[in-house]
Please model this.
Amino acid sequence: MNMIRDELVRILGETVVIHAENLPDSLFAERKWERLPELVQHSEKLHRLGLFEARRSFLLGVEPQLRILLVRHLLDTQMVSSL
Model:
């Protein structure tokens, strides 16, 4: 199930989402490759969660550095839409 950007903002706050969006491409690519297995696993799990509260609980439980990468990955892969 895809999320909308506003849902990420409601869960994590505008600052976190903007930080993820503004992460330099080279830094994102480097960190993404370093943590790819975790990133893929978390993306797939989040994609399967349907309820807002389940997504909220899951995202808030993710380690902060990985959370930024996950948000950026979701935005880049269009698993999050900007309705």
The mean pLDDT is 87.
